[in-house]
Prior knowledge:
The complex is a heterodimer of chains A (231) and B (263). Chain A has 231 residues and is an alpha/beta fold. Chain A has helices at 42-49, 69-74, 90-100, 106-115, 129-141, 159-172, 186-189, 210-217, 221-228; strands spanning 4-13, 16-26, 31-35, 57-62, 65-66, 75-78, 147-151, 178-183, 195-200, 203-209.
Amino acid sequence: MELLECxxxxxxxxxxxxxxxVNLTIPRGKIIGLLGKNGMGKTTLIKLINDLLTPxxxxxxxxxxxxxxxxxxxxxxxxxxxxxxxxxxxxQVIEFFTEFYDNFDAEKARKLLKDLDLDTSLxxxxxxxxxxxxxxxxxxxxxKSDLYILDEPLGGVDPATRDYILDTIxxxxxxxxxxxxxxxxxxxxxxxxxxxxxxxxxxxxxxxxCDELRSKDGSSIDEIFRRMFKC
Amino acid sequence: MxxxxxxxxxxxxxxxxxxxxxxxxxxAILTRLFFNIENSFIMDxxxxxxxxxxxxxxxxxxxxxxxxxxxxxxxxxxxxxxxLTHTLPVSKDTLYLSKFITSIITLLVxxxxxxxxxxxxxxxxxxxxxxxxxxxxxxxxxGSTVIxxxxxxxxxxxxxxxxxxxxxxxxxxxxxxxxxxxxxxSVIIGFATYIGTQVLAIIMLFIAGLFNKNxxxxxxxxxxxxxxxxxxxxxxxxxxxxxxxxxxxxxxxxLFKKDVNVD
Lengths: 231, 263
């Protein structure tokens, strides 16, 4: 059974079709890049997988079951925005995650936060946006999940922070689990990807193994992407 | 999971309300103290100022309570925080039930604090006699006491405020299904829902009137309502608002569960 399966998924807002007949499967134990230009449907697809949107038609299956409580237990999701209650301190947020997620490793989270030299008694509202994003990443990666979904984790951050984020992802995801990283900054993440999914105008343009694609085309994923999506 | 959600919901609402609870009780005590100082023009003015502040705090408690519940509902289910709320391994029924129970508990506590503040500030033999003179005839027809009649009025107001809250939730749920100007739609739909529930209450009262001549007289005569009718209306109003509250709960839950679409 596939970890994640999208079957004929369509999503429209009013008359605007955002996703068109999306069919894809995500296997276990892979790091997958969900790549596409801005506004092509990456975030919509991710929201559908996380039950934040309801498909207009088709279905999203996680471990063969429709998304719901069971899928939320095994999916660790990092949205593109800061989503924590800013009136809470980091300690309180850790307590919150411990209470709601059985697979959350509070010790690991504290260790990672200590590496950031972060005072965990500090309220999120007192932190910079960049620091809040790091806290979120640490919390998400401190869950022992089957699937990690990271939506634009590198968006709007400096190169040094990008390295920190990628290292945190690589060294902390649960063994045997899969990671979906949505981004348009391909050159930064190419080195860590096993598979890529290209999404264009709401349709899956390509799903392939990275090594196969590179050897077949004789160029990097970044170059292939630039060629495919040339304006 | 419900307990855990309730813990965070209640904490979030009470952490601000408790400030107003304390201020309301404090100014109620000061009002009482200063009113007790006789033959002092200045103290009389101070007492009146304290009294005004107590009333302001009481109004503040009600407004703050309702607004905070609506804002938290909106932020948790449709704002940035919804990305966390909707990805928690909790059913949508439980998520909504937590908000509903939080509304009931916080409103109930606010009403109790308001009652206590009013009692502290204004309890006197004369005031009690005045209230008794108004409510005793009703209490007598019940074969009841003034306290029980007061509790019945308290319960009606509480149900009425709870209905207002639920109408606001309906507005937020339906308003956030629109693609644009969601807040405006939320306010308009919430207001329309509130008016709708009041019309429904009148229709239900009319239906009750079909079986009770005194109630029907409310619709077709200008006669002053007799005590017997007031007694019936109190009971009918409690039933009507209770039924509407339950209906709103189930309708909102159904709407909430159907097609969640977070921005």
